């Protein structure tokens, strides 16, 4: 079973809007004790650097490890051991694997948006996140997400690509925490 979600809105994990469901069958993550966040890969045929996916995944890892107070027994980063999730590692019992693909990475230009406002200066980050059971490799959730900034003038300088990535990482962490049973205060 797979569900799809989309959207990014806040850089604060605990106050971020969760990804908006596009299906009603969201997974229950209560049984997962361990989360492993693996680097997101660039879309096939794109010129996106692997470092973009690594940075994005580390942001999700950091948020799940630090922002939700021990919600998981362990949160780890990378392909530290092989797994049935199809990413070349070994699984542990009750492990949730978070991976994905960076589909679009266009930093644009803050100054270009401020002074010219042309589309070539807009910034855009789009990715797909996949949650899998680390033991079976079953896809529990697949979610497209993205953040786009096209304001011109002074507002054009407000957000850059790093803000888009922060917002999306916060939404992923918030969604995973809520599916685990965390409730916002």
Quick description:
Helices cover 23% and strands 26% of the residues. The chain is α/β, with parallel strands linked by helices and 185 residues long. α1 (50-66) crosses α3 (161-180).
Write the layout of secondary structure elements.
Blueprint: E1 5-6, E2 20-21, E3 34-37, E4 41-42, H1 50-66, E5 74-77, E6 95-106, H2 110-115, E7 123-133, E8 139-149, H3 161-180
Parallel strand pairs: 3-5, 3-6, 4-6
Antiparallel strand pairs: 1-2, 6-7, 7-8
Helix pairs in contact: 1-3
Structure description:
The protein is an alpha/beta fold. It has three helices and eight strands, in the order E-E-E-E-H-E-E-H-E-E-H. The longest helix has 20 residues, at 161-180.
Helix count, per DSSP?
A: 3
Structural class: alpha/beta
The average pLDDT value, as a whole number, equals 75
Low-confidence stretches: 1-7, 148-157
Provide the gyration radius in Å. Answer: 17 Å
